[in-house]
Amino acid sequence: MHREAKLGLILLLTPFLLWLSLLIIIPHIDLLLVSLRERVGVGEYKISLGNYLTFFTEPLYMMTFLRTAVMSIFATLLTLLIGFPVAYYIAKMAKGRTQSALFLLCLVPFWVSELVRTFGWMILLRETGIISNLLQSLGLAQGPVEMLYNDAAIMVGLVYTSMLFMVVPLVTTLESLPDEVVEAGYDLGGSGLSVLREIVIPHAMPGIVSGSIVVFMLCLGNYLTPTMLGGKESLWFTELIYSQFIVRFNWELGAAFGFLLLILSSVIVWGMLRLTGQSLEKTMG
Amino acid sequence: MTPDLQCTNLTKKFGETTAVDNVSFSVPAGSFFSILGPSGCGKTTIMRMIAGFLEPSSGDIQIKGNSVLNVPPNKRHVNMVFQHLALFPMMNIADNIGYGLRRAGMHKKDIGFKVDEALERIGLPGIGQRRVNELSGGQKQRVAIARCMVLEPDVLLLDEPLGALDLKLREHMKVELKSLQAAFDTTFVYITHDQSEALVMSDNIAVMNAGRFEQVGSAQDLYYRPDTAFVAGFVGDSNRWSGKVIKQDGSNTLVQTTSGLTLRGATQGRALSEGDTIDAFVRPEAIRIAHNAQDLASFDNQISGTVTSILFNGAASRVMVRDVAGHEEVAVNLPQSGEFANLTKGAPVHIGWASDQANCFGAGVA
Questions:
Q1: Is the minimum CB–CB distance between A183 and chain B shorter than 8 Å?
Q2: CATH of the domain at B279
Q3: pLDDT tier, A283 (very low <50, low <70, confident <90, very high otherwise)
């Protein structure tokens, strides 16, 4: 009996352990090893921190790295700002069928592949695109307007792709807030703003943090949206990693970049949790 | 003196359904007023209109003589203890109680002082730093009341706040609520579907059914002198029989129930004539049970029968008695003085009651 239970546990854990070790732990150990070696000749390597040093001495790498971090944080905040009212409406104000319909509407864009969705934005925003034409026909613009290939275009794309991942955890936490508690806030003299600040937001904090973590990581690691909407004007750190691996065949530097990105996202998530006084168990459990 | 709360012709319609139908009442300052009714009778709707969460379709609500119809809930001097208390789980107890004072813009030091005073008053000093989920049900109850009372509202509304407590605690809180009300000297409006809560605590009770007030009066009024069949059936327990008036002679009414039992009842001034279909109500505690028929000589209703079952429930024990002819089964309270301790199923007994204890109401009125 005891042995059978043990066997069952092993069988259940096997897929998870395989997934964890084959796809996450082993590649990362290899990545770390690759990032720590330097090519000195044909087929000759030595261990050094040279790749990491290159990153810190080359301003382009450093700037792109910081830019990616700052813009990801900004995109996360923007998603939260837009997503919160949407989630509040779905969770607290909409009832019955409207509620599920609105929730479904948030999901609809995800039936289309990310590539097609991003192309949709290009059709809207490019020089010969719909918005440009509309502005011209209305007489608001003299010539064609290029709205692609800048930071704002990237931001629009990132917020759009991330919205669902913010709305879902927010709806879940807001739904668990009893209407009675909100009413009590008003009944005891609170205004709309103070009820939001003292009751709704503290209650929704686990949802806000878990949504923000997911959105932030998605933005930081996004490749498609910054490449297609940002073009050459707006570099994203993932593009640098891609070019090191694929274009320049410099796997050593690419691996170092990959590791730096992992460290960056870990540090920022940790900082976010400390700042809001939440723990990972509380937000993810 | 102007009453603390006055509702005039209050009506609330949700689409086609009328939840509250032309209700008027007033609550004098410092009294404990209860609205008692089955669930879905509209009592919560009245409460939410007074608190300001619902707009009445027509009618007026006045607090201390001023209409509050266009005053939002956060500006009304009315506070509410919610059914599930609605304490703020994200704050500690002191912040919960101080919430309203902070919103009113009171100085931080004064808030601390007032919160301590309130905690003292509800008998829970020194728990200010605890979290909401560390308190027991009864403690939460008291904190919820203190959270409202620090704001010194004109009227405190309580929406079935004892519903979530277990039976023993509920009995205890009934007494406690009454003494808290006396201590704070505030007008309480309490809604409940539990008649014993209403009867024990209230100065005045309104019995509500299907959007209307059936009767407003003291607990004794409702219990001894119900105005309508609904009140007679809802407040306290009753044997209820439908039947016909077969003889009407002054205050003496002779009734035959549909199953053939003949009894004498009282109309308490309600106009009933021969041939009317009626409902007669006799409380089990108004019926005397005896071993000998002679003991019941003073009662004008006497029935001999046999015990069909004994429902033992301590002080509230009952026996079911079927009359010899087998018309009806009558619930009778069992005296606990010992003389009926060996009563068994099938034993012959005699029961009787005075005709004025048998309240008759014309059917169709209720």
A1: yes
A2: 2.40.50.100
A3: low
Question: Which of B203, B231, B259 represents a domain boundary (last residue)?
Answer: B231
Q: Would residue B82 be called left, alpha or beta, if left means φ above 0 and alpha means ψ between -120 and 50 degrees?
A: beta
Write out the residue range of the structural domain in which residue B249 sits. Answer: 238-362
Contact between B302 and B289 (Cβ < 8 Å): no
The residue count of chain B comes to 366
Q: Measure in Å the smallest separation between the Cα of B76 and chain A Cα atoms.
A: 8
Element at A40 (helix H, strand E): strand A37-41
Of B73, B84, B104, Cβ closest to residue A186:
B73
A127 interfaces chain B, CB cutoff of 8 Å: no
SS in 3 state form for chain B?
Answer: CCCCEEEEEEEEEECCEEEEEEEEEEECCCCEEEEECCCCCCHHHHHHHHHCCCCCCEEEEEECCEECCCCCHHHCCEEEEECCECCCCCCEHHHHHHHHHHHCCCCHHHHHHHHHHHHHHCCCCCCCCCEHHHCCHHHHHHHHHHHHHCCCCCEEEEECCCCCCCHHHHHHHHHHHHHHHHHHCCEEEEEECCHHHHHHHCCEEEEEECCEEEEEECHHHHHHCCCCHHHHHHCCCCEEEEEEEEEEECCEEEEEECCCCEEEEECCCCCCCCCCEEEEEECHHHCEEECCHHHHCCCCEEEEEEEEEEECECECCEEEEEECCCCCEEEEECCCCCCCCCCCCCCEEEEEECHHHEEEEECCCC
Residues B154 and B188 in one domain: yes
ipTM reported for the complex, 2 dp: 0.79
* A123 touches A129 (CB < 8 A): yes
Number of structural domains in chain B = 2
pLDDT at A3 over 90: no
**A155, A74 in Cβ contact below 8 A?**
yes
Question: Which pLDDT value is given to residue A276?
Answer: 81
CB contact under 8 A, A188 and B79: yes
Task: Say yes or no to pLDDT of B60 above 90.
Answer: yes
Put simply, the answer to whether B84 touches A187 (Cβ < 8 Å) is no
Regarding whether B352 and B256 lie in a shared domain, the answer is: yes
Same domain membership, residue B213 and residue B246: no
Q: Which domains does chain A have, with CATH numbers?
A: 52-284 (1.10.3720.10)
User: Of A39-43, A121-125, A208-212, B216-220, where does mean pLDDT reach its minimum?
Assistant: A39-43
pLDDT of residue B218: 93
Tens digits of residue pLDDT in B19-56: 999 999 999 998 999 999 998 888 999 999 999 999 99
To the nearest whole Å, the CA of B103 is away from the closest chain A CA by 6
pLDDT digits 0-9 by tens, A174-198: 999 999 999 999 999 888 899 999 9
Structure confidence at residue B366 as a pLDDT band (50, 70, 90): very low
A231 confidence band (pLDDT: 50, 70, 90): confident
Q: Are residues B224 and B345 both part of a single domain? A: no
Where a domain ends, among B231, B254, B270? B231
Q: Which residues contact A65 (CB under 8 A, 6 or more apart)?
A: A55, A237, A260, A261, A264
Q: A115, A224 in Cβ contact below 8 A?
A: yes
C-alpha Rg value of chain B to the nearest Å: 25
Residue B142 and residue B249 in one domain:
no
Domain CATH number, residue B24: 3.40.50.300
Minimum-distance CB partner of B103 among A180, A183, A194: A194
Query: Both B170 and B301 in a single domain?
Result: no
